[in-house]
Design brief:
A hairpin with a 2-residue loop joins strand 1 (78-80) and strand 2. Helix content is 58%, strand content 13%. The chain is an alpha+beta fold. A 5-stranded mixed beta sheet has the order 1-2-5-3-4. It has 2 domains: 12-67; 75-204, 60s Ribosomal Protein L30, Chain: A, CATH 3.30.1330.
């Protein structure tokens, strides 16, 4: 064997290794490209879902504004992110859970549009009571604390709505006490804003969920 043939034999394995390396790199590049495409598709799908969700939420907000156009125009209620706010001064005297006559009239006017809105969307109404940060005990109140006062006010509004025609299956009460103020309790004007009742449409439990939680019939 001459020197030329020996050189070819030594070079051949090198090219074979180089070819294997390039094949491996190409395979890795293809896998990386596929991975990037999968991530992009997932991001695109997530973005589309988020856009649809925002569109639905915006449509719900517009529909709720339209349903409550009259009380909103009068300034007796507010609407922020789907939460209907009513000042505590319109509904109750300070430290009281007894509904004022004007407050009952307001709730009566809200029942027809809210009942129609909820019934068309498989939703129900959460009635939430809120207070300021002042201690109830310092006011010689009959309530143990702000939690109890906010709960009783939420229950009072809930019962009034039912008495005015809201189906009991479409409304429930919740209490937040002095938590979640709309503004810092720095003065009396701010505290008056935090003494409020809010109503917010929320999804109802699905029939499938109710069926799965139901007890099986006895054999």
């Amino acid at each position: 064997m001459d020197e030329h043939d020996a050189g070819l034999e030594q070079t051949a394995p090198v090219w074979a290794v180089f070819g294997d390396l390039m094949s491996g790199l190409l395979g890795a590049f293809v896998l990386l490209l596929v991975g990037v495409m999968v991530v992009q598709l997932q991001l695109t799908s997530s973005l589309e879902d988020e856009v649809k969700k925002r569109q639905i939420e915006e449509q719900r907000r517009i529909s709720l504004e339209q349903a409550l156009a009259i009380p909103l125009a009068s300034g007796r209620i507010t609407l922020n992110n789907g939460r209907i706010g009513i000042s505590g001064r319109l509904l109750f005297s300070l430290n009281s859970d007894q509904l004022a006559p004007e407050g009952r009239k307001l709730l009566n006017s809200l029942v027809p549009p809210l009942k129609t809105y909820l019934g068309a969307r498989e939703q129900m109404l959460m009635v939430s009571g809120f207070t300021d940060d002042h201690s109830i005990r310092s006011r010689n109140s009959q309530f143990a604390d702000n939690w109890e006062l906010s709960a009783q006010r939420a229950l009072t509004v809930t019962r009034a709505l039912i008495e005015e025609g809201m189906p009991s299956s479409l409304v429930f009460a919740a209490a937040f006490g002095s938590e979640q103020p709309v503004t810092p309790n720095v003065n009396e004007a701010a505290r008056a804003q935090n003494r409020r009742v809010e109503m917010a449409p929320v999804p109802r439990a699905s029939n499938a969920s109710k069926t799965s939680n139901a007890k099986p019939d006895a054999p």
